[in-house]
Structures are given as C-alpha cells and as structure tokens.
Amino acid sequence: MTGALLRLVTVSRSYGARRAVNEVSVELPPGARHAIIGPNGAGKSTLLHLVAGTLRPTSGRIHYAGHDISGWPAHRRARAGIARTWQHPALARPLTAVQNVLLAVPGQRLAALRPQRRAVTAAHAALAQVGLAKLAERPAGQLAYGDQRRLEIAVALAAAPRLLLLDEPSAGLAAEEITRLTELIRALPDDMTVLLVDHNLDFVAAVATTVTVLHHGQHIATGTPAEIRDHPDVRRVYLGTDALTSPAPNSPATPAAVAGTPVLRVRTLSAGYTGAPVLTDITLDVRAGRVAAVVGRNGAGKTTLINTIAGLHPAGPGTDILLHGQPLTGCDTRRRARAGLGMVPQGRRLFAGLTVDEHLTLPRPHPTRSRSVDARQVLDLFPVLAERRQHRPHQLSGGEQQMLALARALLAAPDVLLLDEPAEGLAPAVVGQLAAIITGLAAEGTAILLAEQNLALACQVAHDIAVLDRARIVRHVATADIREYPTDLHDLLTVPTTAPTPS
Amino acid sequence: MGLAGLVNPYTITALDGVAYGLLLFTIAAGLTLIVGVAGVLSMAHGTLYLAGAYLAWYLADGGWAGLALALAGAVVVGAFGGAGLAAAVRPLTDRPLDQVLATLGVAYIAADQFSTVFGAEPRSVDPPRALAGSVSLGDYQYPVYRLGFIAVGVLLVVGLFWFVERSRVGAVVRAVVADPGMAAASGLRTGLVRTGVLVGGGVLAVTAGVLGAPVIGPSPGVDTTILVYSLIVCVVGGLGSIRGALLAALGVGQILTLGVALVPGAAAFLLAAAMLAALTIRQRTALPGRPA
Questions:
Q1: Is B186 near chain A, with CB under 8 Å?
Q2: Cα A137 to chain center, whole Å?
Q3: In the list A82, A180, A215, B118, which could disulfide-bond A77, CB 3.0-4.6 Å?
Q4: What is the pTM assigned to this prediction?
C-alpha cells in the first residue's frame, strides 16, 4: 500500500442522470492540509459527503488508512477517525457548549449516569483549543454564529480524529473571525489530516498546502495554491473565458437611452442565512435601456441579491427596493412580478413536467401594464424553442433551457429583468447568442440587472459593473473604464495574487 | 372457452377491485394535489367522503331526483368544506405539523357530530331503482350500480387527466407543484391556486362519498378507513402526481379485493407488504435530478 491516509480512486456520484462527481481521484498523505475549491455546483460538498459516508459513491473506491471504506456507514467511518463539520452548523441547540462536545468524546459508556471525569476534561480541552472555554456553559443556540461554527469544530476535534473534514468553515464569518479560524487550523497537530471545502480563496491559500479544483464534477487541477493560481484551466473555470485579454468585440452603444431614469432603485439592502449576514448595505440603480452587472466570486452573494430583489429571499431591516418610485419591500413575489420585475433565476428553475408550450402559456402581463407581448413575438426571438414546443425541460439542451427561462420572463413584459448567471454551463457560441439577445432587450428599453461570474459576458453587455466582495459592493465602474485597470478586477474575481487577507 | 372462460370468481372479484380502485382514485386525486400544491396533509379528507355518504343516505329516495340533489349538495358541501379547511390552515402556513393537528381536530369534531346526528349504527344506501338490479355476466350476477359506478369513475379519470395535464389551469397547478417560488415570480397567484385545489379536492371527495355510498356506506369509522387508504395511495403514487395516484389506487383496489380473495390468510398484511415493496422499488429508481 502507499503511504496515503485517504485515497479516492475514480469516485463518481450521480443524482439521476446528473453526475455531481465524475471520476475524481485524490490522494492525501497523513498530515496533509488539502482544500477543494470550484464554482457552485462543482460537486465539492458531494465529495465531502462521500468521504464522510453520508453519501455512497455510485462507482469508484475510497481507501482510508489501508481499508476500503466505500461500503462503510457514516458512524463506522466516524469511529475509525473521520470527523466532520457541516455547511450550516449542526449542533444540539438546547444543550450547552460543553454538553455538545461531550457527545462526541469517544470511549464513554452509554449507561453511565454522569460523564466520566476524563471525558469532561477532554471536552474542555477541545473547547479551549477553539477559544470557547469561557462560553462552555452557554446553550449552543444562544452562541453567536461565528462561535457556533467554532463549537462545531470543537465537537469534531473532541473525537480525536485522524482525518478532519470541514465543509465551508469560513462561510458567514467576519474578517477577524476568519483570521482566528486560520490560526486555529494552522495550530492543529501535524499528524491530523485536514480536507476542507471553501469558497473563500484567500482563506484557502492561507491554510492549505495543496488545492484541488473541481468544475461540474470533473477534476480540473491539483497543486499548491501558487500552481493553482497560475493554472490556465483554473482561470478559465473562474472567469468563463480569457476575459479582457481580448476587448469586447461589439461594445454596447445605445445612444437612445443614455440618460435612462433609474427604474429600479435598491437602497441599503441586507440579507442573510440562519443569522449569518450575506449582504450588507447594497445600493444600486438599474436604468431603463441599460444593463447593470453585478460581478463577484462564488459565495459573494450575487444569487441572494437577485432573490432578495425578486422577493424569494427575505430582506433584512432597513432595506428599500423601489420600482418606478413605488416601494416593493412589503410586497410578495407575485406582486413584484406583476409590478414589472421579471426573473431568470440561477439554474433556470423551469417547471419539471411542463412542456415548452405550457411554460409559455403561464405568465400573462397584468392588464394594467402598458406594454404587452404575445407568445409569437417571443418565439420569434428564440427560434430554437419554436421547434421544441412539445418537449419538456429535461429533453432540452442547456442553451434551450436558458432560452426558455428567458422567454418565460419576457412574456410578462417586464420593465426590469433580473438575470442570474445566465451563461452558466453554456457553450461559448450560445453565450454569444445570449449576449446579443440581452443587448437587444436593453436597446428596446428594458432595464436589466445581470449577476454574472463570467466577466467576459458582463463586460460585453453591461454599461455599469458593480463588484461584490465579502457581502458588500466594493466598487462601481463603467465598462468603458475597465480596460484601464483590468488586472485589478481580475484579482477580485479569481484566485488571489496576494495570500494574506487585506482587511 | 371464449368470453365465458374469462368470467370466474376471480375476474368478478377483480371487477370489484376496479370499482374500489376508481373510488379511491376519486378521493385520493384531490388529496395528492392538496398535499403537492398547498403542502397541507389534510386529515379531514376522509371526513369529506363520509359527509358525502351521509348526504346520499339522507337524500336517497330511490329515484334519480334524490341522486341529482345529493350530487348538487356535494358540490356545495365540498366547496364550503374545502374553503373552510383552507381558512383554518391559512394562519399555519409553513407549519406542516400544526396543519396536520388542526385538520385532525376538525376530523374528530366532525366524526363526533356525525354520530350525534346520524347515530352510531351503519346505514345502507340503496342506489336509484333503475340501477338497483343485477345483470348476469356468464354464470354470475353482478350489481348494475357497480358497473355504472365504474363507467362514471372512468369518465372522472379521463376528465381529471384532461384538466390536470391538458388545460391551462392544470399547467398552472403543476407549475406550483414543481416550484412555488418561481411560479410566484412568474406572476401566478399561488395563494389562489392553493385555495382552489383545496376546494376542488373537497368537491371530489364529497362527490365520491355520494357516488360511493351504495358501495361503502356511511358508518362511524369509515372516515378513518378512507383517509388511511387515500394516504397510502398518495404516498405510493408520489405526492402531487395524478398518474401515480391512479396506478396506486387501482393497485390498492386489487389488493383489497382480489389479493384478499387469493390469500385470505395473509389479508391483514397484504396491503402493508405491497406498500413496502412499491416504496422500496420506487426508492431505487429515484426520479432524475432529485437528490436522494
């Protein structure tokens, strides 16, 4: 046998027809600090589940410490020394911090009336290791979000694992909390192996010695953070294409609507998940006939922003969203749609089981609205759909699905169109078609807000670009100015060129 | 042999199973849409059937007029019952267990009221005289009403399938089942669809009660039996799926009649075993795109 502690051999996992993890092979020597990164839907969390045993591989083998553990249930793997944390804290909320940790200390008798002194000592040691000694008697549910995340790590450490799995440990943490988390991971004993999944690339560069990049379930590259940073395929995964090296071919010129009035105004928008802030103090305007793009890395909060504006995600206090000057904050999703907000969500969210025709009969513009369109006009815009009218979403290609999602939104004759990563998973030629359609819609007067990771597309169609980073908009730029400092924007969106976190 | 060979005690029992299955489908189709669209696991669904059965008993006069009156009454009672349930669970949106408790409470209160008003003894309902006799199938006599019921049941199945799978309203309902958030973002009135499905499901269940009264007559406890069978149909067929409900209902109908006739010794376990088998097989062939 090799000296690897964990070895994945061509591991795959399918959900129905979709391969979330596709023949991935990874090897971790004892004491490794290994990170898995990749865009949303790359299969990172699935891979962690496969190692932890909460999911079984569809094919392939997993070797751990010389055993083939592919068929072992999760608890057997935990007893063999694999401990994990979850993407959202999974704690016994009514129990105190120390009681939570005690649950994980091995070697206790089930029937014992009170915990053994040795176990209590071990629990307190684990709490001290993560810096929570003072909060030991506080119920877990009352701890701050960052402390809950650290408590979860203490629970994992209390089991004295040989392999520690961390699922997005830095998600929702503030900058100084991430610094403390970095120190905590660096201070772990050298013989403990760490495998972590995270979106925060600065954090990954600071704690990991090796990095694996996944994209659509496929292994793209493995190497040191420096090697990964310069890897051309990795840049492509994160930026769509080699953006900006070639300036946008047909830069948008829409003289008609240059001074469009703001149709949609967003003021001091905030939003979060289970107490962790994802967006704070977002302010932007979307003007008639113009395309505003919000760009940012994975996990920056782009989808949350779109969903919050559409009313699919609750907005935090103090948020103001105005459409034509009318506040939308108190309206439900349907009222916002009727008022003129159209949405093309991430992942398209087509209605499973409904034909293309049925999708196109659903939305109807509200009778009070001035503009109206009919299905024929929309089908003229998307000739591919006209040939697929009796097909259902799963029978369509990715590009056709995206066109259908766009057509569905356009049928309601929206004044503002929200587009969330429309280029995701599409071939370059289809992205080109999409860009032409978006530019055309804007030229007809629709205000468009585009959340995009594909910088090439954003630069091609957008008039203004807002950069979202760590829950805030850190920069507004006009597309015309981008060419003056392209590397700046590049670094905000791709693997960092400087390892330590600046703020 | 020919046609006469087909008529034996087992095919006659299987015909009973078809009638039983179509009755269950009429009840469970409403429930599966209510669960799929509104997310309400209504424990009062069997109560609506029992209400319909008592309605048929109360208005039965041996002629067509009584049946017609009872059917008209079923629409009114079902619509009010469905709307009432919708109003009762509205404050409990996104609290599924509280909704189950609320509808269970409604079911208990209604069951108590039924016993007080109609008495505790089982009532038998006679079909209209024109359908009261029996017809000979080979060497066997078969009740005309049951054949008529099968015909009406088939019509209901065709109508429901057309409505759900072909009409625009059906497309709206299926869109809300598939993705309520996105349906709202497309401008669809999801709240109205939810109430509408509760009302429609109520009308279907009470109508099934009126039509089914001569087959499964009104008596205390029938509401629970019907509820359990329709829940089985919903779960085995997949929540929100009309096709699945039809297959499951016909299957349950056959198991409760033909299955029991074939293996009387295992009658008590047959349904549970079949359900377990069906769910295990479905789990292994999970729908594409849906994580386990």
A1: yes
A2: 34
A3: A82
A4: 0.73
